[in-house]
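seq as requested:
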Amino acid sequence: MPNILHRVGIQASPTAVYKALTTQNGLAGWWNRPDAEGTKLGARMCFIFKNGGPTMEVTELTPLKRVIWRCVDGPEEWLNTVAADTPARRFPGAMPLTNGS
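struct tokens:
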């Protein structure tokens, strides 16, 4: 699968972006409610959609600076996909998604 890079600029503080990427309510506000919080390194969050969904593992977590997830289970096309965000003023809300295969 080719690498895909999505960048979404939003007007929000790093704190708001961080919460949107690590808490159940924050994630539900822009994507889907996971079964767990992503507030700890190694945490796994399963996102349930109609036809299944990915389980993302938090592989890097630096509060207010960097959040990285990796898909560890779910649809084949999601496996090893990495989602990274840098909720800093320079790149608010930028979340590149790449396939790690």
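The domain at 14-99 is CATH 3.30.530.20 (Alpha-D-Glucose-1,6-Bisphosphate; Chain A, domain 4).
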